[in-house]
């Protein structure tokens, strides 16, 4: 059974896409460089395969390493002093994102405060309980 | 929650680049060969892919130079060679490393008796 080469290309592009998505914390030029280097490595390895099989291609990608780890290593090399938490994943939000969240919280607090003040000023209209009406006649 | 960096990773960072420089001491190497060679060392816990960001940094630091050469089959190959500043850096590392390694061995009790 011969597997069409397109299957292997899909494996490779899926792998590279995963690396790309994992490296959003990297500056754009570094990310491009890393992907380019990995692509060249994969193509060179594939060209050297005696018989291109899915297992052989998977082995190439396995030896290359887990995309998350590669991205983490690249980020570390880029900035060894960055704390690991800031280094992983959500760096895309960065400062503007955090400002937005702070702003949203402030607005929410303001609204809640406003609601509390408004309800206090207007007074809650309470119906007097039936038994509270002053009445000269006493029920028997 | 910060994921703590594994011990082997911490040890590798800071030393692997000098392993690369040492491998270039006797002549230029094809990047793929460097990746395979170091990726296959169990104790270094590095996958082949992690060599590429490292090589990139070595290029930027000017410790290595690279040339592209035609390959018999397949795309052109990138070869790495040790630059003068890299050779100096390797020399410094050797001195630092042996002092450090010997001290840790002595304190931790792994020194050869």
Structure, described:
Chain A is mainly alpha-helical and 140 residues long. The radius of gyration of chain A is 32 Å and the shape is elongated. Helix content of chain B is 52%, strand content 12%. Chain B is built from 5 helices and 3 strands, in the order ααβααββα. By secondary structure, chain B is α+β, with helices and mostly antiparallel strands.
Short key terms for the protein model shown above:
heterodimer; A: 140 residues; mainly alpha; 67% helix; B: 113 residues; alpha+beta; three-stranded antiparallel sheet; 5 helices; 52% helix; 12% strand; globular
Biggest pleated-sheet summary of chain B: 3 strands, antiparallel
What order do the SSEs of chain A take from the amino end to the carboxyl end, as H and E?
A: HHHHHH
* Share of helical residues of chain B: 40-55%
Strand order of the largest sheet of chain B: 1-3-2
Distance between the termini of chain B: 42 Å
Please tally the helical runs of chain A, counting DSSP H or I stretches of 4 or more residues: 6
Number of helices of chain B: 5
Q: How big is the Rg of chain A? A: 32 Å
**Global geometry of chain B:** globular
Estimated share of beta-strand residues of chain B: 5-15%
What structural category characterises the helix and strand content of chain B?
A: alpha+beta
Assembly type: heterodimer
For the largest beta-sheet of chain A, the strand count, sense and barrel status come to: none
Q: Name the poorly predicted regions of chain B.
A: none
Largest interface: A-B, 28 and 26 residues
In total, how many beta strands of chain B? 3
The best one-word shape of chain A is elongated
Name the helicity range of chain A. Answer: 55-70%
Radius of gyration of chain B: 16 Å
Quick synopsis:
The complex is a heterodimer of chains A (140) and B (113). Chain A is mainly alpha-helical and 140 residues long. Chain A has helices at 5-22, 28-47, 54-64, 67-78, 84-87, 94-122.
